[in-house]
Amino acid sequence: MAEHHSARIEFDPRFTVADVPERLFGSFVEHLGRCVYTGIYEPGHATANADGLRQDVLDLIAELGPTMVRYPGGNFVSGYRWEDGTGPKEDRPRRLDLAWGTTETNQFGLGEFMKFCRATDVEPNMAVNLGTRGLQEALDLLEYANHPGGTYWSDLRRSHGDEEPYGIKLWCLGNEMDGPWQIGQKTAHEYGRTADQVARSMRYIDPELDLVACGSSSRGMPEFGAWEAEVLTQSYESVDYISAHAYYQPRDGDFKSFMASAQDMELFIDGVTATADAVGAKLKSDKKINISFDEWNVWYQDAPTGERDEPWSVAPRQLENIYSTMDAVVFGSLMITLLRRCDRVTAACLAQLVNVIAPIMTEPDGPAWRQTTFYPFAEASKFGRGKVLRVNAASPQLETEKYGAVDALHSVAVANEDGTFTVFAVNRDLEAPLTLEIDLASLGGRTDLTCSTLTDADPDAKNTLAEQDRVVPVANGDITVKDGVAFVELPAMSWNTIRIA
Ligand code: AHR
Predict the structure, then answer these.
(1) pLDDT class of 344 with cuts at 50, 70, 90
(2) Pfam families, alphabetically (predicted)?
(3) What is each CA distance from 269 to 275, 291, 339, 341, 424, in whole angstroms?
(4) Which of 37, 46, 89, 131 could, after both became Cys, cross-link 183 (CB 3.0–4.6 A)?
């Protein structure tokens, strides 16, 4: 029997980290695999609305609660001609997508994406192609999207049926331009100069934009740090965010280190903020560059990519990872990190939204269901609003091969807008339960606590087409309150949402 141990936390509503940014709960829709086609868009589906959007998927997205969606890629954007996805559908060209080895039909494009954003009430986050294209095409796209009318590109949009400008505020200046896999990869100097020029010119059209320069594709990239320093040296005053991307998976059966993946995310955030601030200091700027963590997730990158082996097929099954309970707990821990660091991570995107390393799965002509990772995101988006509080924590330690000793308890506390509090807590221990003691002294004598827990005796338990609700969060009644301290029993390997009313 595994040893039972306890951890203790205390927090005070007067001591805050930051307001939780609206953009922290972003997600991502790329033209990749079945994310768009038969994911969000399937005109022939029994639930499809007049715009071809699957209502069953829209309903799950409403429950998931993303606030912003990045589009159209990802690696895809680096070879994309945005005009292909506009105008009458019968005239749209089919093209080779070199990033994923498929054929793009362009039946879904910018106008359809904007309809999707309105249907889901999310903010659009639009990426421009700085791989095969550059400044002029980015300006054309911005003029098409945001200019009211009376010019070639804005009138073209109006002729396509969208009288009102889209008003897209948030733009990514390319995607992963440091990656050797990227179409049109650039050196840091080349990219930094391009990002600066594109950003400055885009602001001539619309000065109110929020612009994201590409940071490193992962903390493991050989140029990590040096890349951010050079890109920001070139573009510091013209951009608002630097991006970060991170995906995690267990390596060589080392599940203990996998459970502590958020340690890497913390170090990543430390490294990028330190580098950005160092550039700012050197430039004697009082401006702060924040992080857009615009791709994060668990991703089994070594798993077969599915139908990619069929060359140039349309919307094949690619990157369709099926997530386990352990994956969901690690995912929850990454979400906790984003909340803990939301003073500098002011935008983030769960990559991706449907079918492709996603919390929502669909079958063509069939049902849509929730993966295990759906639940931590949905609970964080619902209850993680307000102010993140400073938490003092004492936790037992766990030894990991990759990160050394780490806290068994990973947690964050949020003062919600309605006067309640929420603690998100992960017990990283794969074997031992943990008693979480919450000091209620500074919370005005509250004793009303509830807890929702996601765990399973089988760490590999998954939700599948055949068993869609195999893993769901359950009410955890194992809570006692005594002398101003709450005692909440956290099972081994669990994600927990504790509400204090
Ligand atoms: O999200 C899948 C891919 O991961 C994206 O296209 C790319 O930006 C990243 O490498």
Answers:
(1) very high
(2) Alpha-L-AF_C, ASD1_dom
(3) 10, 8, 12, 8, 20
(4) 131
| Residue 311, pLDDT above cutoff 90 | no
* Cβ(20)–Cβ(387) below 8 Å: yes
Residue 295 bears catalytic tag: yes
Alpha-carbon distance of 182 to 185, in angstroms, equals 5
Work out which ligand 1 atom sits closest to the CA atom of 247: 4
Mean pLDDT of 287-302: 96
Side-chain half-sphere CA neighbours of 389 within 13 A: 23
DSSP-assigned beta bridge partners for residue 28: 70
* Interval between CA 116 and ligand 1 midpoint (Å): 21
Predicted confidence at residue 456, as pLDDT, reads 97
| Closest C-alpha to 112, from 88, 141, 139 | 88
The Cα–Cα gap between 213 and 211 comes to: 7
The angle subtended at Cα 419 by Cα 413 and Cα 422, nearest 5°, is: 25
Residue 445 has pLDDT above 90, yes or no: no
How confident is the model at residue 306, as a pLDDT?
59
| CA 152 to ligand 1 center in whole angstroms | 33
Report the range of poorest mean pLDDT among 3-12, 131-140, 146-155, 386-395: 3-12
* Token digits of residue 479: 């809570």
In a mutational test of the pocket of ligand 1, which residue from 77, 176, 292, 293 has the highest number of ligand atoms less than 8 Å from its CB? 176
Read off the tokens for 48.
């499809």
Q: How many helices (H) and strands (E) does the chain have?
A: 10, 24
Question: How far, in Å, CA of 54 to CA of 317, rounded?
Answer: 18
Ligand 1 site, residue 176, Cβ cutoff 6 A: yes
Structure token pair of residue 199: 């950003």
Quick check: CB of 496 below 6 Å from ligand 1?
A: no
- Direct distance between the N- and C-terminal alpha carbons of the chain, in angstroms, rounded to an integer: 35
Q: Which residue has the tokens 């896999």?
A: 181
Give how far the C-alpha of residue 293 lies from the chain's centroid of Cα atoms, to the nearest Å.
Answer: 7
pLDDT digits (tens, 9 = 90+) for 74-101: 999 999 999 999 999 999 999 999 999 9
Q: What is the pTM of this model?
A: 0.97
